[in-house]
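The data are set out underneath:

___
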Amino acid sequence: MPPANSPSPPRHEPAVARPRWEWLRLPDPAALAGTVADRVVAELRAKPELLLCLATGASTLRTYELLAARAAKDETLFARARWIKLDEWLGLAADDPASCELFLQRVLLGPLSVPPSRYCGWEGRTTDAAAECRRIAAWLDREGPVDLQILGLGANGHLGFNEPGAAADSGPHLAQLSATSLAHAMLATARDPVSCGLTLGLDDIMRSRRIFLLVPGVHKAEQLRRLALGGESPDFPASILHRHPAVTVFCDAAAAAHLPEEFFANSPGSEKI
């Protein structure tokens, strides 16, 4: 038995400083989309006039299709919901095959028959970006803050078009797009050249009451590892989310490949791999 005055053995901190978020790991992208859709519906049932901010792209596509299918079965589900578009490619018309507007109208807003009175979208063909940013900011001041922000995780850590180096206190603004963003698959079908984007700012995102971050696919595994295990850095805009108290990360097994098991130990909705 050690002497009474012997020093206490050193305390070992956990190998992982697990973020305070809710982490859900699903087996594949289909299960991820279904789980997100279920959670969005639950948020809507709790607050029918929910204000949702919508990201676009492959990460969100199946979730939005499932929500549209739910609406076809229950027309009252989205009857009072409000919507705002996170970002848009500057210079693209609303009917351009690559526009965020066409994406949302085709997969979600059109099937839901959302009227203009309950939707705020960026005008990609604006000739006065500053005025357009003021219009979006005024709408958000009047209707916001966002209740549920749906996000994907960009290849360089961008959120919307908040590129590396974006100001943490930014509101709606014009963004010069990085080479990474300009290589996005959406732009493959664009009719006009794009170099800039219009986006809600990091401050707008951080004011959201709740954030759902959708991260499917092995191609996002390194970005998710950096978000989960790295510190906050302006070089990786998504890292600002560590300041937010109500983030749920939905990832599939492939995207979670580089994360320690501790991240999912206390998340009942996660699948064990």
In short: Confidence is low (pLDDT under 50) at residues 1-17.
